[in-house]
Amino acid sequence: MKSTFRAFLIVGLLIAALPAAAHHSFSAEFDRDKPVSMMGTVTKLEWSNPHIWFYIDVKNPDGTVSNWGFSGAPPGMLTRRGITKDKLKIGDVIKVEGFRAKDGSTNGSGGKVTFADGRSVFTAGAEDVAPGAKKE
After folding, report:
1. Contact 41, 92 (CB under 8 A)
2. Residue 45: which of 54, 56, 36 has the closest Cα?
3. C-alpha angle 11/75/132, rounded to 5°?
């Protein structure tokens, strides 16, 4: 009986630790030495933990289009800042400033989003914003 309880306890603790293990630090995924700033059209929004992701189509210099994905802060943190799921919409044209993924993919940390009308919001957590940048 004790061994069964012990096995359930160990499995329970391992399962509880999974979300913490799945969450990576900024420096594990993104390169502060590779800032990106690009304009594009929102194609997709994933509003879920541990971080939101939004995707934009960006026109390349050669005329082709690349789809970029940007990680933002957790949904709860954004909501507390007044940034709700309906702020970004499919079809919005936005400028994204952040940092490129270390793996060289078309992913990045989306620290600041500026809309066509000039409104801007920080979508990243405090650790993801460039040092010295002002937060809204």
Report:
1. yes
2. 54
3. 115
Encode pLDDT of 27-60 as tens digits: 778 889 999 999 999 999 999 999 999 999 999 9
CA 68-90-22 angle, 5° bins: 50
Q: State how far the alpha carbon of 103 is from the alpha carbons of 29, 30, 49, 89, in Å.
A: 8, 8, 22, 28
Which three-class secondary structure state does DSSP give residue 94?
Answer: strand
| Total residues found in the chain within this entry | 136
pLDDT in tens, 103-129: 989 999 998 999 999 998 888 765 555
CA 111/CA 94 separation, integer angstroms: 13
